[in-house]
Amino acid sequence: MEPSLRHGTIALFRKRRQPMRSDIVLVDHPELGRVVRKVKAVGRNGNLHLTATSRRFGQEKQKAGKVPMSAVCGILVSRLGRISLFGPRRSI
9-80 maps to which CATH number? Predict the structure, then answer.
């Protein structure tokens, strides 16, 4: 299973509402720093239970855990495509 956002993808996040289950969010995680994760559940106390966006990252899935709602920087609005810093490959 591929990640929801592949490396190099330009993504647009917006803080417009409370995150809901299955939203992809940009979070200031207390241990991992700024990361993109999927909301697994929203707790009654306002904590979000997060999971990795891909099954390939099993280790990260366990590290994500719970974060307060205030840690959310934005919710994914749109994916605009991928960019490459080095341009297309050329054969010699």
Answer: 2.30.30
**How confident is the model at residue 1, as a pLDDT?**
37
Nearest to 24, CA basis, from 43, 9, 37: 37
Sign of CA dihedral 37, 42, 48, 49: negative
- Which has the closest alpha carbon to 69: 14, 20, 5, 4? 20
48 — pLDDT class (breaks 50, 70, 90): very high
pLDDT for 7 equals: 67
The domain limits of the chain are 9-80
